[in-house]
Specification:
Elements: E1 9-13, E2 15-21, E3 24-30, H1 33-41, E4 45-49, H2 56-64, E5 68-71, H3 95-111, E6 115-118, H4 120-128, E7 133-134, H5 138-141, E8 154-160, H6 165-169, E9 175-180, E10 185-186, E11 194-199, E12 203-208, E13 215-218, H7 230-252, H8 256-259
Helix pairs in contact: 2-3
Length: about 280
């Protein structure tokens, strides 16, 4: 937790779908409670980020207020974003959410804001950086083991790359059983990413961006893992370090506080003598 005792602020992207509650049936932004519960239980403050019209400037304004970002699970990414035609089983596109999360992610990576991708979020990371997706895993693996349907999570055994940031977050574990609910997965890996978790038969379950301070994404659903908060604790810890560094830069940069914008940790200043996230701690 940063000096002063205020927990870091973590933004989580949301759905924007038709939803019913009481007498109302309207388009609504929402996110399952388990996501933001995991952030608060790990020591952060959760704030929801619904899809909306976006420019690079709007994304920057949002990110100025955050110490970390989670891109959550949800509908499939529009295949045109990675140069493919839609598979018959691919969801109807959600271009508003695709554009919103792409802009937020690009801005987050540019300023080295700690980032955790979950399910769709892992796919957004890969597509944003130039990779592609398998659009329907049953065509590849021959069954529905990764998405049984009916809102029931399956379990997959994931082999974790030793020495990776993911392994560090998991306390050195090189194998983990995880809850899964996805019918798509990463295919061609984007430049700069490394695969750090795989399940059978060769399905990418985790990637990370070594050039970033903290950019980890998993295909599974850690928010459904009960008391296992290790990935969220790692994100909150990284967000606390990020906030400490950005506050130090702001304090040493004339006019930074009065402008209302928090400086990027990629700025070269006397206060920024080390990478904010290059810590031996997860």
């Amino acid at each position: 937790m940063p000096a002063g005792g205020t927990p870091p602020l973590i933004g989580l992207t949301t759905y924007l779908e038709q939803a019913s509650t009481g007498v109302w049936n309207v388009p609504a932004a929402f996110l399952p409670k388990v996501y933001f519960d995991a952030i608060t239980r790990a020591g952060g403050i959760a704030v929801l980020l619904p899809p909306q019209p976006v420019t690079a400037g709007i994304a920057a304004r949002v990110l100025d207020s955050l110490d970390g970002l989670v891109i959550t699970g949800g509908k499939d990414i529009e295949p045109a974003r990675y140069g493919q035609q839609p598979h018959p089983h691919t969801d109807e596109p959600r271009p508003d959410r695709d554009a919103w999360e792409d802009a937020l992610l690009r801005g987050a990576l540019e300023r080295d804001l700690p980032f955790l991708g979950i399910c769709r979020g892992a796919q957004v990371l890969n597509v944003t950086l130039g990779g592609t997706l398998h659009q329907h895993l049953p065509d590849l693996v021959g069954d529905t083991r990764y998405q049984a349907g009916g809102g029931v999570f399956s379990t997959a055994d994931v082999a974790v790359q030793p020495g990776s940031r993911l392994s560090g977050l998991l306390g050195g574990d090189t194998g983990i059983s995880v809850p899964v609910y996805h019918h798509q997965a990463i295919d061609a890996l984007a430049d700069g990413l490394v695969v750090t978790g795989v399940s059978g038969p060769g399905i990418v379950q985790a990637v990370e961006l070594p050039a970033a301070g903290f950019a980890v994404a998993v295909q599974w659903h850690p928010e459904e893992a009960g008391d296992d908060l290790r990935l969220f604790a790692g994100l909150v810890a990284a967000a606390g370090r990020y906030r400490h560094v950005t506050d130090a830069i702001a304090a040493s940069t004339p006019g930074a506080r009065s402008s209302g914008a928090r400086p990027s940790t990629t700025q070269s200043t006397a206060a920024d003598t080390t990478h904010p996230e290059r810590s031996t701690e997860p």
